[in-house]
């Protein structure tokens, strides 16, 4: 959970050699003492967390139960209060001033005191369980389920699996509505408590609520997101037009307006089926013509996937995983409890990162492990910094995205022998690229909309009575999506992923990692001197790339966000931009432009006809 994570990254001693005023000396002494107060508990927290994990436990769920948490929370709140007593105007040393500013907010949501433990944590757990509670009756009393099973379903993974295979608009609409009707009241109550908790914590800490929420130390961060959206929109509209036309052909005018927004239940179907045989691109790029990616790893174990991911980073000049990590921080799965839906769990206690990996072996898990390793190696590079610089603006996710793009390239898979004997034809490359594009390009506007909704709720420009109208207005404006039916006045229609790790601002994190991940990938490919199509670049084995990554990682958050990413993107390009992503997908964008012109597809969309929006 956010407060349980961020408190570990904001406290430590700093040493300055410069002369300082007596007031600066007093402030520095406080900072040093604050560090000592925390580090007496640091290793105990890490050891207790990991020792408490059982095979079916989530790291953060366990962490919230640890006996030390309330004690740590009280320490952090006290530090925040003491840091607030220093007059910033009297501080001469810029580093001391920055340290005090960081320490003022170290209490995070813990400043709410018992309300955090007795209310906020409960609300967060309740929001996570919206997706996992088995409380949805199956469509037509289970008539479409194997053996007519009428047992209640959870959204994840039960309904999600149905969406991945179903071609029935009525069935998809039923689940879309049923889940929201079942959860609307509890979602709104628990969700708004989280919104109010951030507003209250910011007021207590005497900092702007959006500063507490975003943490990028950048006043125009939302404007940067808007600029990236502006760059993306022409390409998005081309893909949207193609998707809508294919859905219109599949379901007819009674379900899909060939000129209007796409009904959300069908839009979600398109996303979930992107890599399935029933995808809307099947008649153009059949799934069967893709290489069988899972066959690439069929002879590997779950541990082999970890080793293969590690090998990518060591090829760039990073150190191998330490013996300590493998023995104390890498948790092996319980092979007696096979689970097709298993997910890796990572708990970042920089400089320690604990990883419990999944026992399932497939190509997707291999790529996910490459992303997870970015967090491990990022922690390794920034562990010499004062701990309040450990918050690395979540850039480990963007680095992981860039590494995945390289590791998944046909060039890489062929060169390391996983795709031995496989011929990647131009058509199979387009097939792969199109499915990736659906999965990536169509999601980015949703991440933006979710970010904008939270932004406006937190700053008070919208309230819970009107937020659903805002949500659909933004979904129509930025994504060309509408609900499948008219919505009641009291509806709260956010999807379940909106609530996942909401206290960590997960949706903004996803937006940034996608956009910036492609920017990092292109810049690192340029470092290698790559020529040719961007989507087939591999920077594996390039020490110069590794050097650039290390120089950025080692900064943590000791410099402003844009200065940090400039270590890879260079100062003139150190902003969020969709241009690298567009270059990556240019082959399918060319195909879409020609296809839409040939079929006279409408680009853009008319206004929705749904009521109460």
UniProtKB/TrEMBL annotation:
UniProt keyword annotation of Signal present: yes
Record note on cofactor: Binds 1 zinc ion per subunit.
GO MF: carboxypeptidase activity; metal ion binding; metallopeptidase activity; peptidyl-dipeptidase activity
Signal peptide location: 1-19
The protein's name: Angiotensin-converting enzyme
EC numbers on record: 3.4.-.-
Keyword Signal: yes
Residues listed as glycosylation sites in the UniProt record: 74, 575
One example of a Gene Ontology biological process annotation: proteolysis
